[in-house]
């Protein structure tokens, strides 16, 4: 078995658990969060994260309010944050807040903010 790598950079992608979405819909919302948060990151974070292998962790929160609280905390810590609102073309009403992308950022910084959240 190969030696376990230590990732110094990652993204945390957080989805609301209180919205009924199919697995595919959740995946799409999480993908939007990953891309949008990445676009907000600075060059150094982007390069380090890309070079290291693009670690991503997908987590869940119980409500929209939780997403906004995490976004505020992350932004105050200087971490790129992106709230995702659905266009409403398929399963859920337009404008529904579905997910949050954080990072890429240093793993230890994200862990301080998201370390208590359950995995999706």
Taking strands numbered 1, 2, ... along the chain, how are they ordered across the largest sheet? 2-1-4-3
CATH architecture grouping: 3-Layer(aba) Sandwich
How many domains comprise the coordinates?
1
The CATH superfamily appears as Bit1
User: The biggest beta sheet, please?
Assistant: 4 strands, mixed
Rg, rounded, reads 14 Å
Topology-level CATH name = Bit1
Strand % is 15-25%
- Portion of residues in helices? 40-55%
Please identify the structural class as seen in this structure.
Answer: alpha+beta
Order of H and E elements:
EHHEHEEH
Distance between the ends: 26 Å
**Parts with pLDDT < 50 across at least 5 consecutive residues:** none
Average of per-residue pLDDT values: 96
Q: Number of helix segments?
A: 4
């Amino acid at each position: 078995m190969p030696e376990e790598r230590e990732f110094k950079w990652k993204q945390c992608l957080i989805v609301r658990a209180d919205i009924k979405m199919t697995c595919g819909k959740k995946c799409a919302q999480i993908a939007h969060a990953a891309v949008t948060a990445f676009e907000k990151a600075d060059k150094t974070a982007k390069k380090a994260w890309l070079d290291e292998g693009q670690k991503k962790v997908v987590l869940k929160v119980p409500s929209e309010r939780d997403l906004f609280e995490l976004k505020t905390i992350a932004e105050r810590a200087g971490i790129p944050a992106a709230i995702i609102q659905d266009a409403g073309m398929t399963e859920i009403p337009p404008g529904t807040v579905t997910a949050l992308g954080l990072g890429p950022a240093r793993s230890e910084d994200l862990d301080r903010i998201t370390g208590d959240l359950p995995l999706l």
